[in-house]
Amino acid sequence: MRVKKSSFVLGLGLALMLTGLVTWGYQIARGLIVTDLRNPFSWGLYISTFAFFVGIAAGGLIVSSSVYLFNIEQLKPFTRIASLSAFASTLGATAMILPDMGLP
C-alpha cells in the first residue's frame, strides 16, 4: 500500500513538473503576451525571483569559501551543500532571465 501511495505522489509531481515546463516553454516561444499581463507585475515577478536566486547563490559561495579563506572549520560540514545550492541557484537565476526578456 505504501509503495502505491509514494509512486502516485511521484507520478503526480512529475506530471505537474512536465505541465509547468511545457507551459513555460510556450510562454518563452510566444512571449509575455500569452499571460495577458501587460502591466509591470510580470516583469517585477521574474526580476525579483532573479534577485532572490542571486542572493542565495552569493550566500552559498560565502559559506563555501569561508572555510578556505578564513579557516572557519565549523562550517566545513556545510561546504558541499552550500556549493551545490549556489550552483542550483545560479541555474535558477539564469532561467529567470529568459521569461523576463519576454520573447528571447
Shape: flat
Spatial separation of the terminal alpha carbons? 47 Å
H/E topology pattern: HHH
Total helix count? 3
- The residue-averaged pLDDT reads 85
Low-confidence stretches: none
Largest sheet: none
**Number of distinct beta strands:** 0
The percentage helix is: over 70%
Secondary structural class: mainly alpha
Strand content: under 5%
Rg measurement, Å: 19 Å
Overall description:
The protein has 104 residues and is mostly helical. It has a domain at 31-100. The chain is 77% helix and 0% strand. It is built from three helices and no strands. Helix 2 runs antiparallel to helix 3 (79-100). The chain is flat, with a radius of gyration of 19 Å. The termini are far apart. The mean pLDDT is 85.
Provide key terms for this protein:
flat, single chain, mainly alpha, 3 helices
How are the SSEs ordered, and which strands pair?
Layout: H1 2-30, H2 41-69, H3 79-100
Helix pairs in contact: 2-3
Short description:
By secondary structure, the protein is mostly helical. 77% of the residues lie in helices and 0% in strands.
